[in-house]
Structures are given as structure tokens and as C-alpha cells.
């Protein structure tokens, strides 16, 4: 069911290596499937500096295997074009000067066909390597593959985010896929709360757990958490509409100073992708422009909006330690990409003795915690050390995955992060408060 | 040979209308030919706000016929998609809010195939209309066609400019066409001068001349021109290199104040597309990156650079009246798009009793004249009045056409214009001085 | 009455040199008088990059005499502080790197008192020099003085402009001087026109005229002017209000493209300094905030606004050649700084056989001519060559002086210039049209 | 010795209220003393948007008492000018629209003398009020005074920071005060470490402690701190020079991504105010430009620079919980404003059994903690709620006070905060590492 999580590199033998090859093939195929509905023109658009053209994504994830596995370890690897190392390096400054990010949409050659040829070239070389690996490097190869696969999964989610942003620029509101699974029609009901006592809790990935985790999750450590309550589900579109109708975007009272400045500078009046048509709020989704579902979790809000809503509601956002402490007792299921909605949906009715609903999937949940290193944090050696650590400034932690995340990509300890103004991710939030 | 110039609308009959239809077909086919070497990905790039994606150009020139001819005059015209009127209006503010220019590269749908379908749709409707025109509107239809054809020719030149700029962003220096005609290997020799006496001269398009001219050329009028001399040919790459080696880009002495500020802000060290490789100056051309030909006219320089060179050389740029007075006696031949160089080339040796060499073709020549209305200027009625008149501020006049201009697009009275910092056009210059 | 204009350097003797000294003292005293109502705090403000703090102005005009006369020619001149040469150089790049213009307001030391000490130091040295000049340099000294005095007069007008802009930032609307002369209460009546036939006219400063003129006026030359008419007086506030009420600022039809972009970017709804209070248009003047006088010429409008009004009115702006040809027959009188209004006032009733009213004084009149060199233009040698020539790009010519100009500073041939978006000068306009 | 800290509002009687009045007078006099060396011109400069002109500071701190104490509680208070409420409101959006911060330097009136009159007016009214307070409001008055006094002390430190930044713009490097106390000539020696075991610690201001603390310190709560070590003293200029010489500013390896982008965008090569003269590093201080003291703590570095240094040194910054846990055992003494250095100085030799040296005073120490609310954080009611809470985004915590902080302003629990790129404060840092 969830082979990437289950794979470890404790036992290194040929059977095991074959499983890694199959995992590689499965992840690569998932990327291809995401791009299948695209026209070549869609592959080219960079709708803002933070968005990358889909063509760049599919080249970059291939480059990752080339730069960190094939070139160092494949005994006879031949690169297809030496310029690709420059064009498709994302941000590894210690690997060489990356091509400027805001100009990724300027590069029409290599074409989409060229990039798929590059992709096939990498796949063939990876298969060669994993079918006949140099034994003295096999452990390091698998270590890097263990990073390369979730890396590509992250770009799968980024592809959904960026495709959505790209198509949303178009006044024609094009449909990405017309065959997505419809949302269930649940009534979510009143917000409930779960209470937790004060105490020392452990969070972070355990060094004795052989399964993969990013460096930023490493260092299981103790945190003292004062008694708190957490909401039974995320805030819904309907609740957020009430905030909007109460003047939420018009009054500075609820907002962080930077948030209020952003509201005014950007003219925010609603979450990203929302638009009013004939008095009814719609939002752009990967199925096109549809009316907002008041029972579904609000999505595409920034940390600033989440925090302002919480202020208005007399609550706050949970810290990441609180969130993880709660999530440790909740089964890792939810509305992930495999559900085929590509949109958050209303929580199923009825609470749970296990804990709050929708902790996993649907929307990434903004926490009140700035993204900073755990005690004893050590970044990976070499250029891969740039993977996570250098972003530990100016960003907030989000937890739990979303409707565009592969289910086997997520862990209870998983730390996502975005700047507080970002709204492109499928990001929502859940309230917390003191007991 | 040059049917667009020869066509007039004095006689309106069915034979004549057929000639217009053939001219329409010929101009449209020329646009298609320019785009033939492009990949779909090339069609999508907007390398800076002033550049439009080729896809937009080929849609916009079609829209022009739709908006100004088909919708008003075709009795049964059906639009393909009502959104196109918004997407492909360039700058006609009185026609409706145009789609924001800097975002033209954000729109992946309609695709390139869609846009060619739109193009075919317009062609078919235009043929229907011209094969069976409503007689009461025929004169107005031909008047607008008489504007629509040079309009598309202007976009043909813009396509060459924009394709060059787009491909030049790519560190791979892609070749647009590998089969362009090579430049002749002439030695241009020392610069010679032609002298003209003082006197009242007439410039501008004569109202009695039934051939087409833009509104901005209209109003033949008198100007008193003091005695002057004009150079026998444009300034060459070799001469411009001497200026560079003399510190031309390093000393404020020669520069207009705005020009010097631009040099510093943009870090200009050479003309656009020039790059030094192993001590040799190369420049990017539509044939790829090649060494600079010291005998060819310098190209892709701004008015500021032209003016600074002239200051350094103890000369000045000619006014547009001087230029036109000289050009009236020079045959309209030159290195136009039909020559197949798509690059300025060295002047043929030997001067001429007729006047200076290379007045037409090769490079647009910056004049010292700001682009302002002629006496009695009247803009066209309706939205077409925005065609030229509203740009008569902050721009300088260029004359004579270039290696990317169709020969039958140019007249002695033709006024091109660009802001003084612009370098994307195939723009060079010729010196003048007092007698 | 008008000694600066009457002074020449044809005869160089000690009596004559004494007159120059008296002229120097008179001009310098006028600068002091302008600053007399200022607080030290007013001297410090740089309300936008194009505005200089008054402290800077009064230091800079002193620096001009130091750099170009005292240091080269005073046999024993001692500078007060060597840093001043850097701090108070305006834009003479060939003299050394000028202190960055936008940071002039950052420099609190030297203090205002220090700068007045510098001023006194320069005055004393200039008096020493002119009382006992080195005969071999006297001609050059007087030549430079002949430039230095109008230079300081230009800064006197700039001081009025900048003081107005500085105080206008203040929501308290401070009064610069409470004792300015009130405007007369004339009714200007309907607009009349004066017609002129076509012909060759001479404009520019005659080389045989020994009186001073700037280099940019030099080169009396012939221009052919087609028949035209010019308005009897400038456009009034009342007429401009009609344009505003007709939606002048809301419709793109009348505007140059750059002008319309500026209107939208800046949110222009009225001339600079205008503000609506309880339904009545007021404007900030050096006497404070007062209701707009419908009979006075409209002021603080840009070229864009002048041109848009003319388009709306079915007219155009005169060229500078037309303006000068008309002005040659009009006596050089008007509402200059000596009248004590510091604000344009309504034209006196009744036309004139001599020509249009208010050609001189009241408001600088935007012409339709870009600021470009006259035939045979030669800039001054050395750093003084930067005085005028390097600004001959991107600017439009204004003529006739204004209510803040010293009367003896103006000539019929005088060419002022500003960018088309500028509104800080006392700038208005007069209509012209074809005959 | 430290009356502001010792004053509480537990006992409210007339003797006690008199003490408050004396504290008020003492704080206000300290502000006056800071400005005593300034010229009026110095009071006017806003050297960047984050810097306020000193005139604005001295008006704003007076406005604070007027807006929050005199207007609500003085029975007969008359405002001096109603416009001041708009001009001198800093950022209290719920109090009314504040005058735009970046334009504070545009306002020359009220003059410095006017503002001192305003200051005297407020002082007189405050004395009246405290000499004869309305008993029913006395507790609230004292509560607000208890906030108003440290508020003015914060602006005292801001005045030093802003005066330094203002004078540093001036190429003349003016001296603020020539009589500052010279630094001792200590050799600080090798860096030592203090180790602390893991455990639950309490931090934050205790609700039972009647002494004043800001809302952001409130909520004494438990934190689990893993075992760690902390440096015996801050990093010195000499150590930082070693980092610079090792290419610290040239290699991306050590930097956070945002930090590296800032280094490149701003061209950072050294701490703020450092300049190399003839191969020797100097820095601008309030005593003028002096050579850097290698034994003194490095100062005017951003969080990015502190973090990069720590990465390079194989260490990290302490969290604020670690810092506070250590500081709880260190006497609150140090190089504060009362020492008269106005510059950090070398640590006295010899360590201490009590704990690390220089925890208080000298430099604010960047911690590795983002500035976020403590558990149960409640902002103050009304507009005063904007005092601290709305800045809890995008900023890092600094601890311990500096050489420009009044000693009785600081507490062990005191949380200062600045954005990670800020360098204007007297900010340095101390290393920590795992045990």
C-alpha cells in the first residue's frame, strides 16, 4: 500500500534493490500522469517568480537523479546535454550557479519533447544502475534514492499547485481535468474541541526508526506543552465567509502588522482563487470555476489570514508540537491525491474517540510555529545540505498533507513550510486554544 | 513586384478587389512563413514586457481584421470565441480594456493550434467578404484593408525582433534558421560625405498621392533646412568598436544625461546581443552566435548610443527632414527581408552620384528628431485613431527600414519611432554635420 | 531696470567690472530674501528626489562661483571645507562624482548657519576678485559671471517651486508668506485668436547680439512656419474645470499613451496642488490653501494634461518656433516675481494690437516642441558644457517665464524645458490651431 | 538606583503617586539630554523609512501621554494643536490613520521649537494630573504611565540608533558627542563555554511579580530544554574579522537562503558602519570614525550574519529559552547607557562562577527564536493592544539590552525583536551548541 514509507535501506540485497527500482518507476510514472492533460503551451508558463513552468519541474526532478546519483555512481553515464546541469539545478548554490529562477519561463529550448527524452534517458540509466549496482556505493545510492523519490513527490504536489496557478491566470478559466471525483455532500456541523493536559511530550523523527524522514524532522526531542484544546476539524469555507462578512478583511484589529500591510498592498478581499459572480462566491479549482462549498475546509489562505481569523474567533493556531502530539494518536488516512478530488472536501460526519478529524489530507494546516531547526539539527553533507536547512528563516510550519499530496509521502512528523503570505499551496488551518 | 504599394482604392471594381484579396493572401502567407521554424514552446515566451509571444502576434493580426473589418462589414460573420476580442486587442483603449500587455505570456490557452484555427477562420471569412463584398461598404473595407496589411507587415518585423530577443535569452544560443543568406565580404572604406545647400524643402506624404501612407506621414509641408552634410553610409561595427575602445561607454562627456543614467543602470558595455568570447566580440544573430563583421552597419544600438557616438565623432544625427530630403533622390532599394540575410551587411563598394548608400534597408536609422505631429496632423477616426498619434511623446524617429522589413512596406516618407533607450529593433545610425 | 540683460562684456574696464559686482550683489541678495521666511527645518526637506532642500540650493549656487571662478582665477582663494566641492556639485559629472541627488536631504551638516557662512565666504572672495581682477583672466571671469548670475536666478525660481512642494506635503498647509500681493479681479472673457501667415521666420539668439543668452538659444536660424493661429491668452482654471467636468481625466481618447499611463499610475484627477473641499476646488499656493480663481491661467499642469486639453478642445499646442515668432512683437512685460503675486493672475481685459496677452510671465507655456538642439548647436567648453546640452532628450520646451521668474532673466528666445510629466513648475499652456 | 523597575502600582496613595511623577520627570529629562548635542537640522533627517527624524521621536513620546493619559483622564486638558494627533501617532491603526511613516521627514512644521513647546505643554499637564489625580482613574492612569515610561525609554534607545544612522549618511562623519567614555583595553582571550543539563525550566514574567513587564513577556510557563552549552561572552570583532577573512561573505554554504539573497542584493561585505581605510577596518561610532577594537563584541550585525558566523564556527545561536534560563542566574549589570560608552566594549577578564559574561548590556544578542507569542498570550485592551502583539511575525528575538539601553529598562525576561536583516540596532550575538 505505501511502499516508499515501508522501504528501508537496512537490508541491502538484490531483491531489496529491485523493490527500490519498482518504487522509482512508480513515482516517475505518477509524475507523467500529472502532466498528461497538459498542452505543450501549458508546460511553458511561469505565472509568477515562485511558480515554475511544468517543463522545468519534469526536467529538474530528472536532473536531481543525474546530479546526485548517476554522475557520481553510474560507471558509464553519459549526459545528454551538458547545459542541462545549469538549466535544471534549482537552488543548489554549492553545486554551481543555478539558472535564475524568475527566468525559467524564458527558455523555450530544450522543448517539451526534448525534456521527455531527457527524462527517458535518466530512467534508462537509473534502471541500468539499479539492476547492476556497484556494491561499494549501493548504500549511498539507496540513501540518495530514498531522498530523490520524496523529492519528486514534492514536485508532484508543486505541479498541481503551479498548474492551478498557471491556468487560473487565464480569463477563460480552463479545466485541468474534467473527470475529477466529486466531493461528498456532508454537513459538518458545529465546531467541537478536544482537550489535552500539560506535560512533556516527544516530537520529531526517532533515530531508531529506519524509515525515511527529512533532515528537518530529525532529532526526536522533548517539549513541554501546557494544557490546550484543539478543534475537531479545520475551519470551513462557510465559517470563513462569516469572517469576511463581519469585515474581517477591512479591520486592522485582527491582523498581524505584516499581514495587514499585505492585505492593503495586494487588495485581498477573499482567499486566493475566490471570485464573486452575481453575488455568489466561486473559486477556481482544477475542475474549473465552481461555487464555494461551505462545508469544505477553507483553502488557499495565507498564514496571515489564518491568524487573523483565529484572532477574530478568540482562538489561536496550534503550535507544531501541539499538532504533532495530537496527530500521534490519529490514523494516517485522509483526502490525499489518491482520492482523486484534488480539492479539500467536507469532513465525514461524527467525531472520533481517536482524536480530531481531517488531521491528514485535505489542507495543509498552518501552525503558529516558525520554521526553525530542532535541537541538534544537522543538515545533510554536501550540496544536499541545502535541501531544507537554508530555508529556516521567515517561514511558518504547516502539517498534515493535503488533497494534492501522495499519501505515502506524509508522516506524522512531516514539516512543510511556507512564507506567511503564501497562498498557492492547498493551505488551510485548524483552531486551538488554552484549556 | 511591390503590389501593396501599387494598390490604390481609387478604382473600385471586382478585378481590383481580387487584387486586394491576393495581396491579403500574400501578406498572411508571409507571416506563416516567419513562424514556420518555431516550436510551440517558442510561441509562448514573453522575454520582457515589450516583447510579445509569437502566438500573440499571429492572433492579434487576425483580430485586427476581425475587429475592424469582419465584425462591422461581413454580413454573417460568426466569431470563434468571444474572449479573443479581449485577449488579442493590443492597445485600443477606446475599443475596450485590452488584456494587460506584460501578461501575454501567461496565457497558454488558446493553444498554438487554436490560434492557427482562428487564423484560418479569419482568412476564410476575409475571402468570403472580398469575393462578395457589400458594395455600399466596399470603399471603407478597402480603406481598412489598406491599413490592415501594413499593420500585419509591421508585426512581421516585430516577430523577427521578438523571436531574436526570445531566443537570445537562452544560454544555448539556439539558431532560428540555419539557411539564411551569408553576408558579402565588402570592405566599406573611409567614410565619405554628401553636402546639401540651405533651402525650403517639402516633406511628408502628398495628399494627391493615392498610394497608402500612415496618418503620421500625412500633410506634405515645408521645412527650412540649413545647409548640411550627410554621411555616405551608416556607422559600422568596426567604427563603433573604436568608440568602445576609446572608452565610449565609460565617460559621461559624450552622453545625454538620460543616456548616461541608462548606461550605468543597465551596465551597457556594447550594443545589445554583443558578447565577448576569448577576446573577440561576437553577437547573437538569427543564425546563432557569430563574430562581429567590422564592415557591416552597427545594429541594435539605442538613440542614446547613436547620439553619444556622434558627439564623440564631432558630428550629429540628421534630422528627419534632412534625411527625407536626401532620400527623395535615392532609389528605394536595399537589404530588406527579401534578401534573406535578416542581418545588416556591408555596403557595396563605390559611392553613387544619386546620393548616400544604404539609405534604405539594413538598419533603421535613428534621426535627431523627436516623434511629433506634422502641421495639420489629423488622426484616423474611431479606435484606429490610436494607431499612431498617441505615441507622439517620448520617442525618436527612425527612417529607412531594415533587413527585417518587407521592401514594399517602406516609403521615403515612412516614420518609424522608438523610445531613445530601445535596442531591440534592427536600429543603427548615420552621421550628419553642418556644412 | 534690467541690468543683467543690459550688461555685456564687450567693454572690459574697471567701471564696467564694478557694475558686474553690483549685479552680483543684487542677485545674491535676492536669493537671501527668498529664504528669509524659512525656518531651519524648512531648509532640510527633500520632498521628492527632484526637489532639493533649500539649504542645498543656497550652497550649490555659491559652489558654482567657487568651482568655476574663484578656484581657477582668485589668486589666493582658500576653500572653507574641501568636502563642499563634493556635496554641492549638482550634476557636473566631468567635474567629479556629484553627491547623489536623492540623498541631499540626508545631510544635516553643514548646518544652515554653516552654509550661510560659506555663502558669505564666497561673497567676500568674489568682491575681492572683482575689485582687483587679474586682467589676463578678466574676460573669462566675466563670461563665467555672466553665466553664474542667471544660474543663481534659475535657482531662485527653483527655490519657489521647491519651497511650495515642500510645504505642500504638510497636512497643516503652512503659509510661506502672508503678505503676498493679491490677484486683481478681472473677468477674462471668451478666448480670442491671432492669425499669422505662412513663411520663413528667424528664431534663436543672434550671434551679433552681445547680450547674454544660454548656449541652447544660440544659432539664430530660419524655420518655415505654415499659417497658424494662436490664442489671445493661456487657458484658465475655469476652462480647465470644464474639461475636468467633461470627464477629461477619465477618458483615454484625448491622451497621449504615456500621459494616460501616468494619469492611471498617479491617480491624477486635477492639476497638482488642487484639492476639493466641500465641493469647491481649492489649490495650495504660497499664501496657503485658497479657492481656485476661474479667471487665472491654469498652473501646475504637465505637458500631458496640456496636450489632452488641447485634443479635447480641438486645438493643439504651439510649436516653439510659432511661439517665438509671435513673441518677437510683444513687449517683454508681465506678472514676474517682482509683481509679488507668486501666483498667476487673470489677464487684464482688452486685447492688444501688438499680439496675444500674457505671453510673458504668469505661467511657463508648454509648447508642442521637444527640447532638441538648434542647427549648429555647440555646448560650452569644459564642465560648463553640461549646463544645458545633455538634457536634450525626453523633455519638452516651455516659453515665456512665470510669476516666480525674475523679469530680467527672461528673453524672447529663452528655452525652458521639463519632462512631459512634470508639474512642479508654474507651468500652464496656450492653444494654437491651423489657420 | 533603578526606580522604574521598583515602582509598582500595588499601593496607590499620594506619596506613591509623587514617586511616579519623579520617575516621569527623570525619564523625560533623559530624552532631552540625548537630543542636547543635536542641531535643528539633525532633528529633521529620515535617513531611511525605518528611521524616524529625532523631532518626530520627541513629539511622539509626548503624544503617547496625551493620547492615552491626558485626553482620557485630565479633567481640563486642552490640546495644543489638533493636527498633532494625526502627525505623531506612530502605528496605532485602531486609534486613527497614522501619518505615513516614510514621510515623517517631509514635515518641517511644527518646528523643533514648536515640538519642544508641545513637550513642555505635556509635561505641565502631566504634573497637574499627577499632583491632583482623579482618584477613580488613578489606577488606570498609573497603569498607563507604567507603560508610557518604558515606551519613552525605548525611544531613547531608538534615538541613539537613529541619530547614529542619520549622521553616518554624511560623508563628513560628524561626531555626535566628543566626550564619550573611552573603552577599557581588555584582552578577552579564548572563548570559553558553560554547560547546562536538560530539564524543564520556567521562563516569562511571573503574574505574581508586581513589577512592570510588557505583555509579550507575560505568562510564565514551562519549557523543556535539552542539554546545551553557551559561550562565555559574545563573539568579538576580532573573531568576526577572521570569519570575513575566511570568505564568510563570499560563500553561500554558511548562509540561510534569505540571508544569502540579502548579502548579494545589498552588497554586504562587513557589519553595518564598517569601512576599510588604507587596509584597516574602521567603523562609524557616535564618537566618529575609529578603528575597530578586536576585543569588543561585534555589533550592528543582522540575524543572518550572526547565523552564518555560527554555521561557520560549527555552533548555533541559543534559543531565547536557553538564554533566559542562563540569565536567571546572572546579576543584571553591564555596559548600559549609564556607562557613557554608547558602544560595546571588551569583556572584563576572568570568567565567573555565576555564569557567562556580558549577558546584559553591550549588545542585544540575537537568539535563534522567532518572535512568537507565549502560551496564553493576551494583548492589552484597546489601541494599546497594538503595542507588541501585532509584530509577532517575521522577526527574531534579541535579549539582554545594549550600551544604548537604560539599565532600569531591562529585565531577564525582556524580549526585544527585529527582522532578520536589521542591522541598525546595537545587535551582536553569542554562540551556543549541544552538550
UniProtKB/TrEMBL annotation, chains A, B, C, D:
The DinB-like domain, residue ranges: 24-155
Protein's GO biological process: ergothioneine biosynthetic process
Record Pfam families: DinB_2, FGE-sulfatase
Domain Sulfatase-modifying factor enzyme-like: start-end pairs: 196-433
Protease is among the record's keywords: no
Keywords of this entry: Iron, Oxidoreductase
Pathway: Amino-acid biosynthesis; ergothioneine biosynthesis
NCBIfam families with a match to the protein in the record: egtB_TIGR03440
Name this protein carries in UniProt: Ergothioneine biosynthesis protein EgtB
